[in-house]
Sequence to fold (1724 residues):
Amino acid sequence: MSTTIPAVSTAAATSQVLVTRFQAIRRQSVALCRPLLPEDTVVQPMLDVSPPKWHLAHTTWFWETFLLREYLPGYQLFHPDYAFLFNSYYNSLGSRVNRADRGTISRPPLSDVYAYRTYVDKHMEQLLALQDTLPAAFAEVLELGLQHEQQHQELLATDIKYILSTSPLAPAYQEAPVQRAVAAVPAAAWLPVPGGVHTIGFEGTGFCFDNELARHKVYVDDFELQNRLVTNAEFLEFIEAGGYQNFRYWMGEGWDLVQSQHWTAPLYWIKQDNGWHRFTHHGLVPIELAAPVTHVSFYEADAYAQWRGLRLPSEQEWEIAARHFGATPQGGTFLESSLLDPQPLAPDADPTQCHQLLGDVWEWTYSAYHAYPGYQRAAGALGEYNGKFMVNQLVLRGGSCATPESHIRITYRNFFHADKRWQFTGIRLAR
Amino acid sequence: MSTTIPAVSTAAATSQVLVTRFQAIRRQSVALCRPLLPEDTVVQPMLDVSPPKWHLAHTTWFWETFLLREYLPGYQLFHPDYAFLFNSYYNSLGSRVNRADRGTISRPPLSDVYAYRTYVDKHMEQLLALQDTLPAAFAEVLELGLQHEQQHQELLATDIKYILSTSPLAPAYQEAPVQRAVAAVPAAAWLPVPGGVHTIGFEGTGFCFDNELARHKVYVDDFELQNRLVTNAEFLEFIEAGGYQNFRYWMGEGWDLVQSQHWTAPLYWIKQDNGWHRFTHHGLVPIELAAPVTHVSFYEADAYAQWRGLRLPSEQEWEIAARHFGATPQGGTFLESSLLDPQPLAPDADPTQCHQLLGDVWEWTYSAYHAYPGYQRAAGALGEYNGKFMVNQLVLRGGSCATPESHIRITYRNFFHADKRWQFTGIRLAR
Amino acid sequence: MSTTIPAVSTAAATSQVLVTRFQAIRRQSVALCRPLLPEDTVVQPMLDVSPPKWHLAHTTWFWETFLLREYLPGYQLFHPDYAFLFNSYYNSLGSRVNRADRGTISRPPLSDVYAYRTYVDKHMEQLLALQDTLPAAFAEVLELGLQHEQQHQELLATDIKYILSTSPLAPAYQEAPVQRAVAAVPAAAWLPVPGGVHTIGFEGTGFCFDNELARHKVYVDDFELQNRLVTNAEFLEFIEAGGYQNFRYWMGEGWDLVQSQHWTAPLYWIKQDNGWHRFTHHGLVPIELAAPVTHVSFYEADAYAQWRGLRLPSEQEWEIAARHFGATPQGGTFLESSLLDPQPLAPDADPTQCHQLLGDVWEWTYSAYHAYPGYQRAAGALGEYNGKFMVNQLVLRGGSCATPESHIRITYRNFFHADKRWQFTGIRLAR
Amino acid sequence: MSTTIPAVSTAAATSQVLVTRFQAIRRQSVALCRPLLPEDTVVQPMLDVSPPKWHLAHTTWFWETFLLREYLPGYQLFHPDYAFLFNSYYNSLGSRVNRADRGTISRPPLSDVYAYRTYVDKHMEQLLALQDTLPAAFAEVLELGLQHEQQHQELLATDIKYILSTSPLAPAYQEAPVQRAVAAVPAAAWLPVPGGVHTIGFEGTGFCFDNELARHKVYVDDFELQNRLVTNAEFLEFIEAGGYQNFRYWMGEGWDLVQSQHWTAPLYWIKQDNGWHRFTHHGLVPIELAAPVTHVSFYEADAYAQWRGLRLPSEQEWEIAARHFGATPQGGTFLESSLLDPQPLAPDADPTQCHQLLGDVWEWTYSAYHAYPGYQRAAGALGEYNGKFMVNQLVLRGGSCATPESHIRITYRNFFHADKRWQFTGIRLAR
Fold:
């Protein structure tokens, strides 16, 4: 969380505007869970996935812990045990349920978690009415809480997908969208980006996370970026060329995984008699060749690039390019579209423009997720928000079809371990 | 499954009687799940526990697989994937969901499983109407299916207890029963049993499992058995004497577990400020000193006996004694009572009689679960029912408060690994 | 350890006889290690195997701990850390090196361990000279120490085999013996044994382990035993009939192992271009069809019997039969022969006699290793010798080609978990 | 391996000079193992450690595989199985012994490995005599082989230390050196380094590894570096301030390790009655307060810096500073000194100079080990030398007391996972 940059413009954020924004974001979390049955909300089929019930409760716990307990006089906790049950990873806030056990605890049931949400929302609205009397720190944590809930919305979308995928019934979360049929996308074009000393990191008056600061200078050489994402068709060439059987393209630890986990394609791909299929939020469907490839690990993204004789961009290159090309959310696929699947580039897309930088899939970079020069962890429990994860992970940029559009920006740094595949991750090539 | 002993008396088992019995047993499984929420029915907090939803479906799969597919002309499967989803351990019947993954599959939901039950029950009633036209093997498998469903009722009761226990909220499955307060039970008395050559194993005209056969002779020396179960008060003496801290009383593999699992008391015991409590089907309650100790592993039962300078009976001794004392279900606590907790012996119980042999808790014996002389595995898939488990486990006798009264008999052989504690297991001493 | 039976006849055991016997047994341990290089004596390629250096030291530690410290006035420990380093499993004697770490500790080196042996032997000879002045307990523990060292000689032989087998070089421990070529053995004959009430357990004036007591009565039905061991040729039929690919013959836990460990033959069998070979103490050699099959687990022995429609004997049957047939070591292969491989039955062996009961291979029985009726653990550290292992293992009878001939008797109970294969274990069928 | 930079100056490297250098480096490996017993050379007490016997053989395998087989006409392999036994991680060269099994294979014994070295050395000298007739690639791989053997010399020194440390006897590898007693070192001074665009990476005519290329520009801000390493005295303050008990200073994955591994001090530190001791190549000795702290993981180095409110340098900063300060090996402690322990800074060291940059301990940087811009993996098996490790590890700079002085340079990039502690790793602070 940024403590130096004002999270919200004081003028604009009247109490009513804030209440409306708060309610909209809170409703969005509930809306995402509406297609689920109670059974879906409690299971945890792998360690990275949290039960939807847990997400709904944990985001609520955040408001209760960091705002209601701090600022609302006389606030009574909804339930004394919920602090233990729904803390995620804050050592500052005491012991908590072991992460691996999140999916074995059936109580409180979903209905109690919804009651918890209602109770906290009601009190939050009381608190928001008092806003003018509260210190500046209140507005900052409020904004952080909204961003935090948006982050969990993306996790809800991807965790739900994983949960439903484990059933042999391949149940659909929603109906298949009526989509434009795109037979093929234009060949990727190389766009040059001038190197030199650039400044990266967040600048401006809105919100940013602390990991986007301090703004600082970097040097990069001239480079070129492909003007669109790698497609399923292109990735299929790698598969069919034996990419998953040849160690030469792989990082050593990636190759170990390919062998021990028997990886032969991206996550959710299944080869059936009549060809490759993918599990999606609308069930099992044939691979759409024109769509961007997704659910690949860093290892797969990197091996694909090696096989092509190319490379992934660094996060510095990505941000410089995004600014250079004036990337905007326009045309990107975000959570708000409800598509929950990256979309093919339009066949008539301008080959001189750089497309799909924001939305659709998170783009793996070949940059370790480390603190920027000048980074300082915040004091208190919220200092655990980002800083303690800044090793052993890689940066992804640009947001995905599960990211709220209002949540993304070109300085945004997402991060995952190199082996993770259950997020909407994809590939853009550089050279 | 017994293939030599007629499972039912042909004369008595008119079609209508059978339908009534079938319906009663099927209803009992559903009744056990009625207090559950859908969330409770899907989780698997440890490998030994199966989700209640799975039990409800698997018992139904049994009828579909072994009877409807075989005998009902034109029967259509409820769903083609259920054979994969709800097979337990029958290699003969193809691949199946990995046991460890039973608790991560949220679909089909509970409501579909109930629809599955209704569908199968309706067709089973059709099939039962045809009974007179069916071969003898039909009646045998029918009986086995009823017994099988009763076995899963006991597992439902104990798995539900474990599932609810994992929540810090300690939710109650049912209200606490209005129970007679028993301050203390009479001192245990030693009852002599004459040794010599005895015959054990099932004899008669009703049903028995194949593992109760062949009936065969054994020799035992004269021995004595305590006339009641070990109580919580007695076991507490072991705890307070440092029993869990002294390797001398323990089997080596048991002592390793005590240390690695940090066992300090039976499963479900929690020490709070005001003393020892137990988690039960009616929530967390203070230890009732007069009640039989339960949820102990063989290791704990054996260590307790060692500490007393006594021993556990063999299964042969147990069966000989039960016959010698004319053990009946009378006075025992069974599933039908809905108490789901072993009950204290009445203070005025006759000290010359042997009590609590049937019901209340399964009594660990110091006998390996091996085939009896003359045992033969049945042909076909049902040959996997018992035979392949006949090594590395120990026999328990007598049934528990979660066993249907109509399911138990003195020749009944239950079996678990020495470390298991989630069943209603207890201790009776011999010398 | 027997505490009730005098371990040695007082009259015969003059001091000099004892010294001679002590020296002979001590020399035998060293002789077994003579072909080894220091490197061979330190490694532990699997948990069950101990480094030969450890065996040499642990057996020495036994004398130091249980006799020299107790009975030799003014005895100085060879090294203060050796009690920690070379304790095996005696909780009574304090902490010790974790079993899994025995093979990672290179110091003390082998030469120090030999110096330790020399030092302890010298003091033991001093102590033996004082024998007449020592209490009866001394003679008992002395005898136990000799038996203990003989047990470790068998482990040395089998552990060395396993250690050498892990090298792709397949190094030979010794030259191949000049052996009679046996083309085929006579067909196995069934010999009847009359049932009834028999008495088993040790009786007499020599030494026995405490687990051979108390002598007690058992009832068995009439049965038949094969008059020789199962051969490689016979076991090969099982392999070639797909025995390792068909779950029907296997215990469930055995079948899990077959699949996870990819078992396709006994331990040490390797299929090469020109057929099956075995690793032996004399290197890699073609399977000798007439020799008894060895290095099979209980699971394999039992599956083989199931496949034949037969069964393994119980330990009671084995002992009754051995006494009935007057089994003697005569004609058996023992450690003293230095062959270290079970030998084929002579082609002209009398078909009316029962052969190979003692020596050659340990015969798996279908009896759990439990305490006999009346068994009592000894007091003190030596009470841990046998009693704490009496669950979850199976009894083997008869000794093997790695057992000292003077160590075996028909009441001897060896015991291993059902999955163990690195001992010289084999199969005799019953029905 | 660099393929673009000539590894050796053709003029200087006459055949005789090369033979002398080859022999000197080969002798050094053997010299390092001279204090060992055969038992020490075969064990592998943890996965990161390789048995010394394996190092001696693997370095020899390198010469045989990459030079003798390629370039010496008529060369006969020493042993056909050694390619399998002593390949480290080259997938290009076929299957190999599982890394975890290196320490369980006692054969070939050490003496055979020495014979292998002699055989290969003799043939290498023949080959070196033919040098003028060989292609340029020969000289490159020759140089790489020498550097490779020097890398394994460092591993030999650190692996031997770990192996000996596992014995409770704390055996000394060598006698304690006669060392200057240093009561205290001067307070650390901050030295400024001007930022801006700098060029880093190898430049010149000697050898470098491929990971030091391509030479490229980077931008850094002005920064300051401490002019010496962190000492044991300083690190002890962190310990005594509860640094190992407070999650706030730690990366999340580091804190998990602290708890699960019970870390309370650097590796090899043991608290005894009279204070902290360290295991060293000369046995267990009291902590020398003035010496640089060593055997810390990245997590500990980073937590220490966090606790001080400071940070670790990036690898770019380190290299820029080293060039800025004109770092030379002068005054550093290297393998050639045989001290095998980092040395305290002289009390009269010039506070305006930057000390201990080369030698003594590897300095953790907060830079991921990634490919430099323009990096290309070499073709063939040697392309696996570095490239496939370029993710999930951190860069260390400067060499240590176990690094050959002729092996280090300021562009040298060493790399380890953040949790590794068995190398001579240490801390230098930046701000």
About this structure: Confidence is low (pLDDT under 50) at residues 1-12 of chain D. The longest strand of chain D covers residues 362-368.
